## 1
Amino acid sequence: MVKNNKGWTLVELMIVVAIVGVLAMVGPSILTQTTRFFLLGSTKLELQREARAAIYVITRELRQAQSNTIVIDSTGTQPYYSRIRFTNEAGNNITVAQSGSSILLTEGNTNTTLSKNLGYMAFTFPRSDDMTIVSVSLTLQKSIYGGATKALHMASERVRVMN
């Protein structure tokens, strides 16, 4: 007796349909979670790079300041302690200030934007008896998905003014 086994049984077809159905239900959520994870990681990396670059430039300029010219204040529309002004050793007037969600560095008539993702920035004198030490604090934030934001806080304590 020769048996001809062409085709599939009903049980095999039902198993395949069940597996495909489970994959169709789980697939979109896996894809969504993978996309969110990628966006979160890339945003975190971008904010870290931006914060490091901004802190580097600000501390480099502060180290060259003349300590008796440092003024920490704010513009009328920005938070307290969000602007620092000083004269560097070359005699140039430098201002680092918050302007909305941007950090602006002004040297003479030249404006440079250090970041466009600023959430908070503050300059303080951590010791009232030593005006040659300035504390810099930055929080950068960026929208990622579904109204959520990723924030990164970076503080550079005790920038020693060299002049």
Note: The two ends are 103 Å apart (CA to CA).
## 2
Amino acid sequence: MRIVFALISGALFGIGLCVSGMTNTLKVQGWLDIFGAWDPTLAFVMGGAILPMAVAWRMLKNQSPQPAIAQTTSSTALFDRQFVIGSVLFGAGWGIAGLCPGPAIASLGFGGIGGVVFLLAMAAGMLITPRIKARLTAAAPI
């Protein structure tokens, strides 16, 4: 049953990314260019995601923290150094490439070398990061 829910939500997510223009790197970079040719259309995409989630969080505020489909939840409430560094790197990469992982995967469906290059670079980063982290931790604890 979990696979069915994952397939449905993944398909809806991918369709939403394509329909909203989040797979168009120029539209994303236009949204991030607040001092230049700013394109505000993605504000509606973000609002379309944030507003329903705000309502859902409010409705579930007093509910059990147990997920409906998963066995456990793996969220943490604290911001640590790794979280902040990762967020900064994610944002910088999003601004430079105009893609983040979800839209990059969705963009594979309609071709284009940019998404493939992005995904290869992302995979390389995911493989290299644990090694870099181990070396940094050995040198000085994070």
Note: The mean pLDDT is 81.
## 3
Amino acid sequence: MLNHTSPMELRLVLNVPNTMTAVRVVLSGIIFFLLLKSEFFIGGILLFLASLTDGVDGLVARRLGQATLGGALFDLMADEVLFMPNLIAAVHMGLFSSADNLMPLNPYPYAVSALAGGVTVVSGVGIYLWKRRKRQMEFPSPTMVVKLTFWFWLAPLISAVLGVGPDWLLATLMYLSIIWTGLAFYSYLKKGAYVFTD
């Protein structure tokens, strides 16, 4: 069944892609609980499966003609709900300690840069919604660099939670995440700075 809502409409409708996004939000809470209970293998597998829904829900929305602005913003927020609390839990549980000798102040350069990116996304959505109450405003579509950022943030987190690979792999993923976050900030703020300034 096709959804005939406007792509610029903010209303959330109960459809297949938004249901997939909602499942990601629910899984986030379960994963957070598992990490705090030291159930790292199950938590890591669920984290990986939940992250896969990020790409699939958008693809399904486009295929079914159910892509809307409300769904896209919900997807962005669901990404941060999945990532940020679980990153904080992983840091709290010391899951990045295997890379201590390979990164100064481990894991804070990675964690702080990724969390700053997440806070920027959440702030941008909040400011956009606030400004949109009074005037029509287009939400800047993410560049390809920005679309890949979530995966650069998740790769070290999933690796740390599952404890897979050698120490240098985790450190490399963390360094790549830091670099990619900087590129994403530049790319997205160059295109969408009006959300914060207009």
Note: The chain has a mean pLDDT of 90.
